[in-house]
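re the bet — no i am not wrong, look at it urself. input seq straight from the record:
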Amino acid sequence: MTALLCVYLNRWDSDLVRRRRKIEPARAIILALAERQRDVVAGCCEKAESRGVQRGMTIAHARALAPGAHIEPIDEVAHARLLRRLAQRMHRFVPVVAIDGADGLLLDARGCEGIYGSTDRLLMLVRAHLEQLGLSARLAAAPTWAGARAIARFGPRPLSVTTPPLLRRTLAELPVEALGIEPGVIERLGRVGVLNIGQLMVLPRASLGARYGADVLLRLDQALGEAIETVELVRAQEPVEAERLLDGPTDRPEDIEAVVREVIEQMCVQLRGRGLGGRWWELTLRRSDLEPLVLVAPTSRPTGDARHVCGLFRHRLESAPLGFGIEGVRGRVRVMARRRDEQQSAWERGQAEQDRVGKLIDTLTARLGNGCVRRPRVVASHMPERAAAYERVDQLDERLDLRRYSRDAAQRAEEALPDRPSVLREARPTDVSLLLPDGPIAAVRVGGRMSRVIGCVGPERIESEWWRRPGPGRDYFKVQTEDGRWVWIYREVESARWFVQGEWG
């Protein structure tokens, strides 16, 4: 069994964005990076690449090649953090995992022959798991780390296994870039006609090292297994779990609640010892006459409050089918995160209010179900109906806590915004009466009847977003009717049709 594996996540950045934003597969994704006072392409999906988008070109050029593509800045810090989490997840397959650059993983499967039987089966299991996560990857197995890395990133097949007798022949067909040599050295080798590793192997070692540096010889020896290559391992995170077995089955609610409380308190002690908090709690109830029942409770913030977690499971236990009784309870924290330490003596409101809001969200989620608690989110769009959306509150983002801003700063920000109605509805066609063809508004139909207009502010021109589906421009008016209501209406520039969209309360 070829023991060293490389997992090359060739669309890592775009796959993360598509997964997080829930973008349909038919839409292209382009990631931008500010470089020398201009925005360039830092990554793209396969669909954008098929239209000619390449790394390093300007965003304006990429937008022209792939109109309608989703474009956003790349978050390299967040993607690196997620790559480390994925590396910890890979410990379910092999005991040793390392990170390879910004978009790759190295897996050591030595000693796993009895579990998987063959390298091909292990590669297929890893690829199937990544596909379930929405990640595309190229996988290769070879006798050396450098060899597996070169074959995964530059090999002809997305899934390949190279045995020791075939390693030299397989590497000989790959370009020199597969060794990870500096671009300047690759360019110098290309000038003398050395384009692949096979041509590099036949050159005299003495002259090769003297002309192009010792790093070329080191990388070549590491790929062939003639030099040692060290990697930085990602240690597996020890699970936080606890279990309590009973002498016999019981269906008494107070006894079951006491056992659940004991199990959760033991897990909270383990979390506090590591400085972590749980975000996904799981309880397995061993029923005497039925299959084990699994109950889960997500939290919006990392927490180690046993009382709060017990309250989340209390409602689930009340409605859980217990059969003839429970023989034991096993708990595990599936998702953990670092708890944030904040000073509470001088500013007591900040952390206390965050805790109260988090507990309220957790309680509502436990009662109503996952995905039923939502909050408004500002969207970068100047079209009124697209400027806000509702998203699931799965995690509180403390970086966007508006309580940290002063009241004066919030008031100045509110004054800088354009005047918008307090109630925004779906745009509905309406009738408008004008004094002249292009004159002031005399009357408008609101609530099913024509009302005389006694005040009008406008027009305010809002054009359609050209990078989305194009549409007609709009002229917005803020009008006051004779009964004192302020209504927000607009006229389409091309069709001259009128719509009512909002109202000031």
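see?? The radius of gyration is 31 Å. told u. also The CA atoms of residues 362 and 368 lie 10 Å apart. so pay up
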